[in-house]
Structure formats: C-alpha cells, structure tokens
Amino acid sequence: MSSQITWKLKQFTELTLFELYNLLQLRSLVFVVEQNCVYQDLDGKDKKALHLVGDYDGEIVAYCRLFDAGDYFENASIGRVVVTIDHRDKKLGHEMMQVAIASIKTHFKTTKITISAQLYLQKFYESHGFVKTSAVYLEDDIEHIEMKKL
Q1: Cα 82 from Cα 72, distance rounded (Å)
Q2: How confident is the model at residue 122, as a pLDDT?
Q3: pLDDT tens digits, 23-77
Q4: Cα separation of 27 and 18, whole Å?
Q5: 80 CB contacts (<8 Å, ≥6 apart)?
Q6: Which of 21, 25, 41, 58 has its CA 20 to 30 A from that of 31?
Q7: Residue 44 to residues 41, 69, 87: CA-CA distances in angstroms?
Q8: Phi-psi region of 59 (alpha: psi -120 to 50; beta: other; left: phi over 0)
Q9: CA-wise closest residue to 128 among 145, 115, 139, 119
Q10: Which runs of consecutive H residues, i.e. helices, occur in 1-150?
Q11: pTM (2 decimals)?
C-alpha cells in the first residue's frame, strides 16, 4: 500500500484549492469531530508551514505541516500529524514521519525538532527518536507532552 502513496511537499501558496480544501477537511474530521475537540484549527500558521501531503488515488490520506526553527518552537517542528481512519492500519504515520524528518533536514538544514505530542502517541514518536521533555499539559483539553529529537 505505502508504495502507492505519493508524498508532496508544498509551500502554502503552492497548494491547489482542491488540496487546501481536502487537507482542512481531513484536519477538521479528525481533530474536531473524531476527537470531539472544539478548537481553532485555522491558527494563521499554515502560511509559514511546508505542507507534507500523502495522496492515494487523488485522495489526501495523510498530512502534516513542517516549520523552520523559530516559526513555531525554537527548533524546527512537525504538527497537525494526521492519517485518515481508513488508512491507519497501513503504517502511513510511520512513513510520513520518516519523510517529514528527512524533509526538515533537507529544507531547514537541521535535525533538531520539537513537537507538541498528544500523550497517547508518546511511543509512536519515541519510535522515531523523540524523547519526552516536559510534564503532561492540556492543550485544547487533550493531554500533550513536549518531545524533542536532537
């Protein structure tokens, strides 16, 4: 399955209207509806981010955004990590993290990455070299931890 995923890395201005609509729809479906969390997804940071889009047969099935150091955290960062529910059993999250980490190294010339991770995903991020660097805190009523990869 993963060999059929096409990964695209785009600046905000390079996203087509179709891509933008679909990635925002995916983020809303998972972060607002599925997680039952009312929050302001459109936070003004999309314009600064590089957008990593996983496309399968014309459908966005995986997505995250990447930031250079200083745009979100002191280090580069990865956020809004999401995979459609129908594709979570295919290890796309792991493939996407590998592509995201490599893209940060290539585009931002760093391997230092900070993330704000949902607590239940701690082991997932640890499998990609991240370590917990904070106590648990609430972000939009969901338990999170800061994690870093140095």
Answers
A1: 18
A2: 97
A3: 999 999 888 788 877 777 888 899 999 999 999 988 999 999 999 999 989 999 9
A4: 14
A5: 27, 31, 63, 64, 65
A6: 58
A7: 9, 17, 28
A8: beta
A9: 115
A10: 17-27, 92-108, 122-126
A11: 0.91
Burial class (CB in 10 A: 0-12, 13-18, 19+), 147: buried
Q: Which helix (H) or strand (E) element contains residue 74?
A: none
CA–CA gap between residue 81 and residue 76 (Å, rounded): 15
Residues in contact with 90: Cβ distance below 8 Å, sequence separation at least 6, in sequence order: 1, 2
Model confidence band, residue 90 (pLDDT cutoffs 50, 70, 90) = confident
